[in-house]
Amino acid sequence: xxxxxxxxxxxxxxxxxxxxxxxxxxxxxxxxxxxxxxxxxxxxxxxxxxxxxxxxxxxxxxxxxxxxxxxxxxxxxxxxxxxxxxxxxxxxxxxxxxxxxxxxxxxxxxxxxxxxxxxxxxxxxxxxxxxxxxxxxxxxxxxxxxxxxxxxxxxxxxxxxxxxxxxxxxxxxxxxxx
Length: 178
Prior knowledge:
This protein has six helices and six strands; from the N terminus they run αβαβαααββββα. The chain is α/β, with parallel strands linked by helices. It has a single domain, classed as CinA-like (Maf protein), CATH 3.90.950. Strands 1, 2, 3, 4, 5 and 6 form a six-stranded mixed beta sheet that branches. β1 (32-36), α2 (42-48) and β2 (57-62) form a beta-alpha-beta unit. α1 runs parallel beside α6. The longest helix has 22 residues, at 153-174. It starts with 7 loop residues before the first helix and ends with a helix.
C-alpha cells in the first residue's frame, strides 16, 4: 500500500510549534493535558518527541468516537445529539473534563473536527478549546473555529495538530496562568 504524500513543510512547521510550546511550558513551569479527537493523538505524539517533555506533558485522551467521548470524558450524549460532536460546546466539555481528570495539569486543550471536505458545509475544519485551572477551579473555555487548508486528509490532520499547538502557545503568551 502506498502511503499518501505529506508535505514535509507541514511536518517541520508542526514540530517547530511543538518545540516553541515546550519552551513556553518550561518557562512558565506548567503541565498540559490534551483531549484529541480528529488528531487521534498526533498532538501528544509530536510533543512526546521533545526530550524532557515528560515533566510538562501529562498525556492525551484520544476520544475519536462519540461513545468514547461519552465514556472516558463523560460528555453528555444529549450535548452531542443536539449539537454534534464537532462543535464549540463539545470542545469546551472535552477540555474541562480532561482537565478535571488530570489533577496535576494546569492547562487542557481539546480538539475535535472533520478532516473530510464533504463532512460539513464548512468543509474540513476543527474546533480547539483551552481550559485553565485557576486554583482548584476549571476556568472558562472559549473554543475557536479553524478551517483547514491542506490538500490531503493526512496533511489536514497535521495542520490541525499545528493549529492546536499554535493556539495553545498564543493562550500561554497572552496571559500567564497565576
